[in-house]
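User: What would this chain look like folded?
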Amino acid sequence: MTLKAKISEKEAERARQLAEDDEGESVIDEAEQRRRDKQHQLETDLANASALLSGTSVSGKSLPTEIQELLSFTPKTKDDFEAYSKKIFDAFIRKHQEKPLYAVFVEMHVKALAQSLRDVDVRKAASGLTALANEKQKEQREKASGKKKTKTASKPALAGTRSVSKVDTAAYEEALDDFDDDDFM
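Assistant: Here's the prediction, encoded as structure tokens.
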């Protein structure tokens, strides 16, 4: 016999012995192992969700009415979306405003929210944020300088723009009058 034939014969014999020894146990063990893995995955997911929602239970018990209300809320108009946004902000986000990484959270959150928007809508939202940034910057400058906020600032008028009711033309007549008499020719 050749070497390849001997190796294949030994491998076949080993496979046959393993199949005979563990035929019943291997099927049960694999199914049992899959069930255990699935159960363990479910338990860890529930534990993570419970930790994420800070004390609310996810294991079949009812969620607080505030969360149920947010989950079942379906906004359709602009006013509905504004109310929905305010509820989400009040319920989940307001308590984190003073944290040092809040700005990073806002940036990432805005990017995630704007991901599905069209470019025109993203630009509109960006212009709103730019306007807010400009207002904040203006307030900061006013606070730093100590001046009070004035609503209307009038521009200074130029000094040479006085209205003159009578035009002085006497100087022209003297300079252009070379002849003593009124002879034209």
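Residues 167 and 173 are 13 Å apart (CA to CA). If you want, I can go into more detail on any region.
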